[in-house]
Each structure stands twice: as C-alpha cells, then as structure tokens.
Design brief:
single chain, mainly alpha, 4-stranded antiparallel beta sheet, 7 strands, elongated, disordered N terminus, chloride channel activity, Bestrophin-like, transmembrane helix, membrane
Length: 593
C-alpha cells in the first residue's frame, strides 16, 4: 500500500531516493532521527482525532472529501509542504493504495467518470488512516519546503518629525528594496524614491506658508519652472526692443516736444499728445485684462476640480477597496502560525499594492513621447521583486500579456478574483457563494476605478479651447510688453513738468510686465502639471512609494488587529472566526487544475 504513496511522491517531481529495502523513507538513519524528534504516538492520536471529527459514518470509514478536509485541518506540516492540488492528489493516491486489493477486478473499467465516482465512495478505516497520516508527516519532514510568497516591504514615509530648531531631518528607509529616503523641514515633507527623478513633496505646512514661509518656499512652485522665466525674458526683451525702435524712430524723424506736451516733427506740426499714452491702460488694456483674468480663472478652476476628484474619489476609492479586501482577510484568516492563512493574507496584500505600482506605470505611459522618457520613467520595468510585490513568474505572465491603457493594473484584480474563487472552492471561506459574489463586485469596482483614473488623465480640454486661451494670454503679455516699451521710448520726449509722472507711470507698467507673465504663464503651467499628476514632472507629482507605504502600513495594522482582538484573553491563542465551508457539490479547485 505504501508503494502507491511512494509513486505519488516520485511522480510529483520531488527529490528522493528509496532505501535498499524499498521502504517509503529516504534512508533508515534519517528515519530514526525523525522518529526521535517526532512523537509517533502523538501523531497517531492526532490522526485518530481527525478521523473522528471528519468521518460522517465512522463504521464505513473515511471517504475522499472527508479525508481532504481532515488533512487540511491536520498538522501544520501538511499546510507548509503541500498545495491544495497536491493534497487532493495525495488523497486520491492514498485511497487507491488502500483499496488496490479490492479493485483488482475492476481495473479494466475505462470510463473515467465511473472511476472518479467510484473513488469518491471508497473509504479506509480509522487505524489505517492514522497510520497513513503519521507516514505522510514523517515523509514530508524530509521534503524541501515550498517557496514562500514574497512579503511587501512596509515603510512609514509620512510621519517623520523635524527638530525644534527647524533643521532639516533626513532619514533612509531600512527595507530591502532600493534606497528610499525622506526628509522634512519646517515647511514640507520630502521623499526621494531614488529613481533619478529628484525629491517630491508629500505634504506642505500651510500655516507657515501663508505667514512668512512663502518667501522661502521655492521647491515645487511655478518659480522652479524654466518656462516661466523664459516667458518673462521674452516679455522684457520685447519691451526693450520696442523701446529701442521707438527711440531710433524719434531720433530719425527729429521729433521733439513743446511745453504743451505734444510731439512735433521737423515741420513743427503736432503729431502725438504724450498724455494719451497714459490713457491706454485705463481704457482698453484694463478691460481686456479683466476679461482674460476671468477666462484664465475658469480655465484653471475646472482643472483643479478634476485633479481633486481624481485624488479623493477615484484613487482613494481604489485604496479603500484594497484595504477592505485586507480587512476581510484579517477576519477570515486570522491565525498567525497557519501558513495557509498567511499565504492568503500576503497574496491579497501583494496584489493590491502591485496594482497601485502598475497603475503609475500605465498612467505615465500616456504622456511619454520619446524613447528617452520611456527609459527615464521606467515604463517597461515591472519587476517589483525588490519591493516584494510580484514573483518572477507573475512578472513574466504580465509581460506576456498585450499592453493597453491601464491593462496591466487591471489584470491584477482578475488574479485577485480568481484567487478568491480558489479559496471558495478549497473550502477556506464561510458562506463561499456569498463571499465570492461580494469579492467579484469589489474586484469589478476596483477595475472600474482604474478605468476612471485612466480616462481622467487621458481626457483633455478641446484643442480649440486650449489653443484660444493660450493665444489670449500670450497676446496679452505681448501687448503689455509693447505698451511698456512705447512708454519708455516716449518718456525721453516728455516735457520737464510731466517727466516725473511719466517715470512713475513707467514704473507701474514695468511691475505689471513682471507680474502678469508670472500669473498668466504660471496658471497655464499649473493646468499642465495637474493634468496627469502621475508623471514625475514636478516636485508635487504623486509618489507611488508613498501610496504603497500608506496602503501597506494600513493593511498591516488591520492584519495585526485581526490576530488578537481585545476580547481574546491571554490564555487563548486564536480569535473567533466562522468555520469555512465547501460549495455544495464541489470538493476542490484541484479538479480544474
């Protein structure tokens, strides 16, 4: 009978070499060592207890589906060593071995369905099951343990505290991934993902900013954008060019001024009243600037609303769904020393954090225009083994799938839904049908959130509208620069009595020439920066490691709370949880593997 079990272990690809007498164990010396360390009588009692707990009709013996449940609830060695599919196949091998003598007359039956039906009705008695249970435990002690799933690295990246003297505090994380630094001062918290994209601001101190901090706060603002200073230099250059042309024209035409403040040409006729230059701002320029300011406000306001909805409703909704799944895992799989429960908890947490990381890759890909940007943003680098999010096999499966807008991050929730289905089929969850439907709805909602996020960042204003607004404020800056240059050019022709007024008016227009490009160009850049906050084009862009750390730490708190709630006394090891159930007329997902 044991030869059938031995054939199962050889067929499953495990490394083994039988001893000279053909016994199940690898060698007699190691068997004796194990028998010294493992109490055989205790294992026999455990096997008998499992038989009594799970055999519905003890006088008939224990059937296949009852044996499968008994082995699932047995020693932790079985949970550590074997997957559910191997455990199911082992039950089949044990039953075939136990009933091989009774089935000799039926070996010619070629109907697989009849074989499967007959196997389910086979049974073995109490002592045979206990003996086989002990042999399986001793056998598995000699087998190499299966690889454990990777663990997500948990990093608290937003709770550092600065010194009392406002000195900058820098801290380096200790997890096994790439270096992960964060620092803070009296104005903001910063994070460096060490991906050659520089520091990012995770939170700023608004109370200090509105007082005197605005004088020192430069990082992360529009003042750090080179395009703003280029626009300002363009405006100043246009004003200087206009001034030079005006002065050269006046000199070439031999234009002078009289006491009335009029410019007179060489023939003595009045050509221009200098006081009319002062009316340009009061008349047409003020009206156009007011209308333009209103249009720019509406232009940016809508973008800010979209950005707010993206972060608060869609992205946070995705985080809430992931944490809700982890909360269910903390209730359904609370046992800390059960490897099956630990595998379920870690898989749910890993896949949830991996979907966040892949979402950043998919969202950044929308605004990658060159191969250099692809390399800089590491779009095709989805190997998250260093962060403990995906295994090498899972990474290869993702790479083999067709790419698309948000496809990789959405695939993760297909895996999660399938994983919950497997748990239901394996009898790991109470009320499996209701739980599967609930988890399918959660996975569908998470996929919808990712779809909404991708639609939000890919959706743009109509080209005609954006082009018109940009044309308007660029033209306004250009006209302001020309007006300032004209005033500066004609100021040399002003009479002595009005020259001071001209210089005062010129100073006012010069200040506007500096301020207007900052405001208009800055608003246009803000609209561009918040269009896709996943792209690391500024210090205020989203940091996926911060979101990963927050979700992972929140999930860790939920899992720790589920292991030992307050009502559990010290002498009790495990919290209360509903007993798992099998789906009616279904034994194991291994039947489909």
């Amino acid at each position: 009978m044991m030869r059938w079990v031995w054939r199962f272990f050889r067929g499953s690809g495990r490394r083994a070499s039988s001893s000279s007498d053909g016994s199940l164990f690898f060698d007699q010396r190691r068997e004796r060592d194990l028998r010294d360390n493992v109490c055989r009588d205790h294992l026999l009692d455990e096997g008998r207890r499992l038989f009594d707990d799970h055999a519905l009709f003890p006088e008939e013996g224990i059937h296949m589906h009852e044996m499968y449940r008994a082995l699932q609830k047995g020693s932790l060695h079985l949970s550590n060593m074997m997957e559910s599919a191997d455990l199911h196949n082992l039950c089949v091998a044990v039953l075939e071995a136990a009933n091989s003598t009774n089935d000799n007359k039926k070996n010619n039956d070629s109907d697989n369905n009849n074989n499967s039906r007959r196997r389910r009705h086979q049974a073995i008695d109490r002592e045979t099951f206990a003996t086989l249970y002990v042999d399986m435990i001793l056998q598995l002690e000699l087998l190499p343990k299966r690889d454990k799933p990777p663990r997500p690295h948990l990093v608290i990246a937003n709770t550092t505290t600065a010194a009392d003297d406002d000195a900058t505090t820098t801290t380096t994380s200790t997890h096994q991934a790439k270096s992960f630094q964060y620092k803070m001062d009296s104005l903001a918290r910063y994070i460096d993902e060490c991906d050659s994209l520089g520091w990012k601001i995770t939170r700023y101190r608004e109370r200090h900013l509105v007082e005197l901090g605005w004088l020192r706060m430069v990082t992360g603002t529009v003042l750090m954008r080179t395009g703003l200073w280029q626009q300002m230099l363009f405006a100043l250059g246009t004003a200087a060019l206009t001034t030079a042309i005006t002065v050269l024209t006046l000199l070439a035409c031999n234009v002078g001024t009289d006491r009335a403040g009029s410019c007179r040409g060489g023939d003595g006729r009045s050509t221009l009243q200098l006081s009319s230059l002062k009316k340009l701002d009061v008349g047409r320029m003020m009206a156009s600037e007011t209308i333009l300011g209103l249009i720019m406000g509406l232009f940016v306001e809508k973008a800010v609303k979209i950005w707010w909805c993206l972060r608060l409703d869609q992205l946070q909704g995705l985080f809430n769904i992931i944490c809700s799944m982890v909360l269910r895992a903390a209730i359904y799989f609370p046992h800390a020393n059960n490897s099956s429960d630990a595998h379920a908890r870690l898989t749910i947490l890993r896949y949830g954090c991996a979907s966040i990381a892949l979402l950043f890759k998919d969202a950044r890909e929308l605004d990658c225009w060159t191969t250099g940007e692809y390399a800089t943003y590491q779009i095709n680098n989805i190997d998250f083994a260093a962060e403990g999010l995906l295994t090498s096999e899972e990474v290869e499966r993702l790479r083999a799938m067709p790419t698309g807008a948000g496809s990789r991050s959405q695939v993760i929730f297909v895996w999660l839904a399938s994983f919950f289905t497997k748990l239901c089929l394996d009898g790991k969850l109470p009320m499996p049908l209701e739980n599967q439907n609930e988890m399918l709805r959660s996975c569908e909602e998470a996929r919808n959130k990712i779809g909404e996020i991708m639609a939000t960042v890919s959706m743009q204003y109509p080209l005609e509208y954006t082009h018109l607004v940009v044309l308007m404020y660029k033209t306004a800056i250009l006209l302001l620069a020309v007006e300032t240059g004209l005033i500066l050019g004609f100021s040399g022709c002003a009479p002595d009595g009005d020259r001071n007024d001209f210089w005062l008016y010129l100073c006012t227009r010069s200040l506007l020439l500096v301020a207007i490009p900052v405001v208009y160009q800055g608003l246009g850049m803000i609209r561009n920066m918040i269009q896709n906050p996943f792209v690391p084009t500024s210090a205020t862009s989203y940091s996926w490691k911060v979101f990963h750390a927050r979700v992972a730490n929140e999930a860790r708190s939920l899992l720790l709370a589920g292991r030992r709630p307050p009502y559990v006394p010290r002498e009790r090891k495990f919290p209360a949880n509903l007993p798992p159930q099998y789906i009616e007329r279904q034994i194991s997902s291994a039947m489909y593997e």
